[in-house]
Amino acid sequence: MYSSSFKSRTRQSNIGSNSRPQSKSEQEKNIWSSLLNSVASSKKLPEKNLLILGGNSELQRDFLETLESESSRRPQDRRRKKPPIANEFALGYTYQDVLDADHDDILARLSIYLLSESSSTFSPLVKPLLSPNTIPETLVVILLDWADPWTWARQLRDWMRFLKGIVETLDDNCKVIAEETMKEWQQRRRGAPYEGGTAATNDTAINIPLGQGEWDEPLGLPLCVACHATEKIEALEKDHGWREEEFDFALQYLRTVLLKRMPASLLRLTHADM
Predict the structure, then answer these.
(1) Angle at CA of residue 163, ends 120 and 67, nearest 5°
(2) How far apart are the C-alpha atoms of 96 and 167, rounded to whole Å?
(3) Rounded Cα–Cα distance for residues 89 and 87 (Å)
(4) Taking a C-beta distance cutoff of 8 angstroms, is the pair 194, 184 a contact?
(5) How far apart are CA 136 and CA 174, in angstroms?
(6) Rounded mean pLDDT of 64-75?
(7) Separation between Cα atoms, residue 230 and residue 233, nearest integer Å
(8) CA neighbours within 13 Å on the CB side: how many for 59?
(9) Calpha distance 145→270 (Å, rounded)
């Protein structure tokens, strides 16, 4: 009777546990999963986004070289493997790491997206890059080439239409974030310091009003125009008779276009051999 009772309890206990010992492979898998998750969370880096529009694949690659700091080109740093640049078809991608002063640790990562054609067929590729989280961390760069400055006006028109078409289709939450981002840029333009994303009240801040035509056609995204390959300016002077007046006119036109879209003019002149 005792034996029968003992067997019954043992059987009930085994049924109630309804579990089996993990195999060695399963245990190893769980251990590795835990380790990988831990490493992934510990290495999560602050991330900024750069959307480069315009230029062919060669010009884009050349421009990306200028984004590297001079210190990152030291001989001892060239051993660091450069990330590949995939920009031959449709929306390209690469990244650059921001290193500390000793070039030992990665402080942040710059994700770079590249697009050469302003056709609306590529809009579905760019739109997912703009979310409430990424919009404040994104800078749009329109890349122009000094080899053909007489095409700049058309290129700017096409890219502005392209971007406007995307921004207009964003959801309401994205549009609110975009508007807040532009207000922050406006406060910077007017001289009010920013603390934690909000304008700081400071009696000593210089309140500079917007000029005529400034920010009357806001785009909703931080925008920069990069005029690349300034070494080609000499050819414009020799072969096309450009003088200081022509160069001033071209650059002033770019500033005017920029100021209409955002309350701070960002214009960068870059040289291929920087």
Answers:
(1) 110
(2) 26
(3) 6
(4) yes
(5) 10
(6) 63
(7) 5
(8) 21
(9) 10
pLDDT in tens, 77-118: 555 677 888 888 889 999 988 777 766 677 888 899 999 999
Q: Can you tell me whether residue 4 is helix, strand or coil?
A: helix
Chain centroid offset of residue 249 CA: 30
Work out whether strand 106-115 and strand 198-199 pair parallel, antiparallel, or are unpaired: unpaired
CA dihedral sign, ordered 118, 120, 124, 128: positive
Retrieve residue 193's tokens: 């310091």
Percent share of the chain, pLDDT over 70? 64
Segment holding 38, helix H or strand E: helix 24-42
Amino acid at 79: R
Q: What H or E segment, with its residue span, contains residue 144?
A: strand 138-145
Q: Report DSSP state, residue 239.
A: H
Q: Any idea how long the chain is?
A: 274
Q: How far apart are CA 66 and CA 145, in angstroms?
A: 14
E strand or H helix at 67: helix 57-67
The band of 27, judged by pLDDT with boundaries at 50, 70 and 90, is low
User: Cα separations (Å) of 204 from 192, 193, 208?
Assistant: 9, 10, 12
Q: How many whole angstroms separate alpha carbon 102 and alpha carbon 71?
A: 10
pLDDT in tens, 129-185: 999 999 999 999 999 999 999 999 999 999 999 999 999 999 999 999 998 988 887
Give residue-wise pLDDT tens across range 184-204: 877 765 554 544 444 444 445
Give the tokens for residue 72: 């990152």
